[in-house]
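I had to read the description of the data format several times before I understood it. The format is easy to grasp once an entry is in front of the reader. For illustration, here is how one protein appears when written out as sequence plus structure tokens:
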Amino acid sequence: MTVTCPACGRETAQAVWHAHLCVCPACGSHQPIAARARLTALCDEGTLAEMNADLVGGDPLDFPGYAKKLAAQREKTGMQEAVMTATGRIDGHPAVLAVLDAQFFMGSMGTGAGEKITRAIEYARDAQLPLIMFSASGGARMQEGFFSLMQMAKTSAAVADFSDKGGLYISVLTHPTTGGVTASFASLGDIMLAEPNALIGFAGPRVIEQTIGQRLPEGFQRSEFQQEHGFIDQIVPRAQMRTVLSRLLRLHEGGVKRT
């Protein structure tokens, strides 16, 4: 079995592709990686413990066909919601982690995902653990309407409370991070990291161009552009993410906690 890179068209053996964490060995293009695979690669062996695995959102608007689509997504991905939350250790450093999975409804944030993220933040606050969240999302989940949009305020308020208590929050933006996720918890990190060439913004570039009637600069909204303009602190290739996070956690270990 082989995997064809969407960026360069190079075929790679499936085992090699996954060993490279879904980064093309030929061109370095970062492709979507499952939440569990990302967490397994990051955390020390035997330390990963999933939180709230069975927590799911509802269908508050009784949106036509939504229940069937949810069931299909759960069957396809093996996940109950678009985010996986867990505790684990990175080179011995304990942390709370949350990873949005772009393979589940494009990582969209509905009531279930928002609640899982909020509970993870609150657990990190109460346990006085650092928080690391990986975003990959098309934004709010339209099938849940205003209930989905409310998750922006809920997650942002939880981050603010966590910060007020002196918690360390590292936000990692991956491709793509857009819409309501960008406009809420994803942009509130004490330290902002991103993977190479990730699309990061609220509205997409095509929508912006159609709205303003102008061509956008080359690379607009990509992580390199965002770093150049001060929104991102560092761009970290996926293969180096564990090392960089370990270093950041070690540097901030034993910091003063505000209560």
About this structure: The chain has two domains: 1-31, 33-252.
